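Lesson 9: reading folded outputs for more than one chain in a single document. The general rule is that every protein is listed as its sequence immediately followed by its structure tokens, and records are never interleaved. Here is the first one.
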Amino acid sequence: MILTTTVQIALGMMTLALLLNLWRLMRGPDTSDRILALDTLYINTIALMVLIGIYFDRQAYFEIALILAMMGFVGTAALCKYQLRGDIIE
């Protein structure tokens, strides 16, 4: 009972955080702010997948969270390298 209520409240907060991240991603004043917003969006999506996995008691959501973490790391590293050097592959 308490776990269900807590997870539902956390899901609502994470949804709000995702919407605020999308706002910063669309409105960011420069590219570095948008990259940071995208990285934060990945982190919040990972947290959302973990919360959904706890709520529905399914292991697949945790595996999805791991895949998102790997994709987020590679994507953020590639975008930062592109911003610094103008090329991803040397």
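And here is the second record, again sequence then tokens.
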Amino acid sequence: MLNNTEVFIGCIIILLICIPGLIGNGIVIWLLGFNIKRNPFTTYIFNLSIADFGMLTIETIRTLFFILNVLHELSFKYYINLLHHSIFLFTFMTSQLLLTIISTDRCVCLFFPLWHRCHRPPHLSTAVCLIIWLVAFLISVTDIILIVTLEYYWLGEIQFYLNFVVSMPIMCVSTISMLIEVCIRSQQKKWGKMLRAILITLVFFLLFALPINVAQSLKIFQKTYDYFSLYAYICATLNSTINPMIYYLVGRDKTESSNRRMHVILDNLFKEEEHYREEQETSTEAPL
């Protein structure tokens, strides 16, 4: 069992991680929502940033509450925990499902660019995102209703278990396939920065999402480990914070001045995705 000092230190760490994540995801949402015309792929990135922003927001609220609770015992702890459980399940599940779709979409685009271009419905990304948000919302609402009315706590844990045994293997296969393809053809073709950013994002997600999926899945078997759970939440927070930083570091041109603003670099990176996709398809269409 964690003591108050350990809880306080863990809360401070999570809070320090959340703040830059909220800023970074906020910039991505602002750019893709109001300043850059979205294409089918950046629609996924836009929705992923919204999900990460939501997750970091609820983590910030819960962390601040825990700090207050350590300093002064509060009476509404149960309701805060219930709210956090529901919104965390909603946003984290949305993020994981979106990354599963992103990994699959990039894999298909990489291996079958012509098929991806000719047979992909123009509004598929929007429709898939809406379905993912709806499914995650219905599951989280059902979960909180079952907790309040029947004191049934396992739907959320079952969902994390399904994420662990279904979504993560799909992402593993897609990511490994793309990494192999990129390594094999790296000498023959220059890969776009956005593809590299997505590959790094997927690798970090597989590393950072594993602990929280395992920690929540263990609750199904009546097993909880307080230190591991704290570590898992820190990793989940890192996962939602790190994506804008990956976009920034990959999109940054080392030959240019290092004081370029983040929104300029992200703007160029997201615009390059459309140009690179068209260039790849054109080169594929060209006769040998």
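What the second record shows: The first helix runs from residue 4 to 35.
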